[in-house]
Amino acid sequence: MTNPRLNPTTSELPRELVELSERIAGLEPSQRNELEPLVQRVIESTRRRQRIMHLVQEALSQLRLDMKYLVFDLEATRRERDALRERTDED
Fold first, then answer.
1. Could you tell me the residue range of the domain that residue 59 belongs to?
2. Is 60 exceeded by the pLDDT of residue 45?
C-alpha cells in the first residue's frame, strides 16, 4: 500500500509531480519504498513554496492598497495646504 501523504490532489501540485507519484505507486514495493521519501520531500517543498507564494501575493495586494491610501492622503493633504495658502494670501 502506498503512503497516504503521496496521494496529492491535482489542484495543489503540478501535473508532472502528480504523475510521478502515481507511477511510483505502481512500482514494486522495494523500489517504491526507496523513492517515496524522495518524492515526499519534493511534494512538501512544493507545497511550502506555494504557501510562501500565496503569502507574498497577499502582502503585495496589501501593499498596493496601502499605497492607494497613502496617495489619497497625500493628495488630500496637498489640497488642504493649497486651500490654507489661498486663505492666508487673501488675508
1. 4-90
2. yes
